Amino acid sequence: MRLICAKNYQDMSRKAANLISAQVILCPESVLGLATGSTPIGIYRQLISWYEKGDVDFSKAVSINLDEYCGLSPRDPQSYSCFMHQNFFDHINIDKKNTFVASGMGDFEANARELEEKVREGGAADLQLLGIGNNGHIAFNEASDHLIAVAHTEKLTESTINANARFFEKKEDVPTMAITMGMGDILAAKKVVLAATGLAKVPAIKGLIMDDVITTQNPSTMLKMHEDAVVVIDRELADAVGYRA
User: Fold this and answer.
1) 158 given a catalytic annotation
2) Of these residues, 65, 68, 111, 135, which one is catalytic?
3) Residue 174 CA from chain centroid, whole number
4) For this structure, is 228 an active site residue?
5) Does residue 216 carry a pLDDT above 80?
6) pTM of structure
7) Which of 3, 11, 68, 202 would staple 104 via disulfide (CB 3.0–4.6 Å)?
8) Catalytic residue selected from 65, 67, 141, 226
9) Cβ(222)–Cβ(187) below 8 Å
10) What percentage of residues in the chain have a pLDDT greater than 70?
């Protein structure tokens, strides 16, 4: 696992985006695993800027998103499908037919199976972008006594619901279930890029980068086993966890 320490959020976004753009430039038909949430927004804005300048071409790329809330339609402003279109897909030249975000409506278990089929159909992601939850969850693989390898439905913890409540009018509106890739799907990616910022992430990041323990109580620590995982954090977060290099 390699750690990149950026000066601030903007620099972190640029450094993470550079890894993604390099992947697409070297292999235009790359399969990209994509993430949502507040952290990747700066990454997507940087990639959009480079696309608009003609520096990167997404026309042959394929994308599969990590997760989706159960119970939200693709048109719901808080759905991850809507998020991806507003923050990335609608601003680049990716073929929408080559993008996939699991459906959050209807039969949730069937939708999870469809996500797993899509992951297997496209093969392991060439690059998987990740954020990290306050409790160390990756996608919606919550801290637990066990983790699931394949795509599945997951009951969200109170910690995750509280963290996501800021995106909704009130806490009661936050979905309590989600469809998510499994940890096996994520670890199968050829390259993983995890981006993190904010002091709320201190416990999770400290467990990820400051010791050699791997535990399902901090799912992010599974990345210690990956042969090509890159963690990009800002200086404030690095200082808070005691990382000095």
Assistant:
1) no
2) 135
3) 19
4) no
5) yes
6) 0.96
7) 68
8) 67
9) yes
10) 100
